[in-house]
From TrEMBL:
Gene3D superfamilies: 3.40.630.30
Source species taxonomy: Eukaryota, Viridiplantae, Streptophyta, Embryophyta, Tracheophyta
Protein name (Swiss-Prot/TrEMBL): N-acetyltransferase domain-containing protein
InterPro entries according to UniProt: Acyl_CoA_acyltransferase, GNAT_dom, Plant_NAT
PROSITE patterns: GNAT
Cited CDD domains: NAT_SF (cd04301)
One Pfam family in the UniProt entry: Acetyltransf_1
Span of domain N-acetyltransferase: 9-193
Length: 226
């Protein structure tokens, strides 16, 4: 940790008893999006660990000002076992999620120190790689991870959203959308996606998790037939 930042900030593990309300407030301050845009803020339902709690190996780190104990940053990490086509049966993939720095304390190196700290924790717990996802137009985040932390672009992901309260517009009558049972979804993933470079070895547990909303497929149906 650089001397200038080290003298100002302490990176430590999240303490649920003392930090839960402060972390929730910080997350809301850093919410991405406005009332006129789609927001990718994750509703934590009062639990800052909600995105990682069900992974056996997980951590949340916070950045705290030495001067007054103010909590000014947070990052989450967890480890997933992911199947690959690269020889080994699986790799332990360290996932970095939810990096947040208080708007008043950005461009001070706090985000960088949080990332390096969570990387050290993930590698120390057996991660073979570390990865994360960020918005393409998030210049500050992209620069941090590619220029300062030496991450490389692995894949491009496009996320589409449709308000659930509105009907799907412009959908052809030849297209059918159907929800799968958990066993059907597991069969689909194992037979269609297992050949990809990386594939979660615990996909059956993921799809059977009670918090999972479900899996839907869309396909063309022949006219006059279901």
């Amino acid at each position: 940790m650089s001397d200038s930042v080290e003298n100002k900030v302490v990176i430590r593990e999240y303490n649920e008893d003392r930090d839960i309300k402060v972390v929730g407030k910080l997350e809301r301050k850093c919410e991405i999006g406005t009332n006129k845009e789609v927001s990718i803020f994750t509703n934590m339902i009062g639990d800052p660990l909600s995105r990682i709690r069900f992974y056996p190996v997980h951590v949340m780190l916070v950045a705290e000002l030495r001067a007054n104990g103010e909590l000014v940053g947070v990052v989450k990490g967890c480890i997933k076992c992911v199947g690959t086509r690269f020889g080994a049966s699986y790799v332990r993939l360290g996932c970095i999620l939810g990096l947040r720095v208080s708007p008043r304390h950005r461009r001070m190196g706090i985000g960088f120190e949080l990332v390096k700290s969570v990387e050290e924790w993930l590698i120390g717990n057996g991660a073979h790689y570390t990865f994360l996802a960020t918005e393409k137009n998030n210049v500050a985040s992209t620069n941090l991870f590619t220029s300062k932390c030496n991450y490389m672009n692995f894949t491009s992901l496009v996320i589409f959203v449709q308000p659930a309260s509105l009907p799907v517009r412009g959908l052809s009558q030849d297209i059918k959308i159907e929800k799968l049972q958990a066993d059907q979804a597991i069969y689909l993933y194992n037979n269609k996606f297992r050949s990809k470079d990386m594939f979660p070895t615990d996909v059956d547990a993921i799809l059977k998790e009670k918090l999972s909303i479900g899996t839907w497929v869309s396909y063309f149906q022949r006219r006059g037939m279901d």
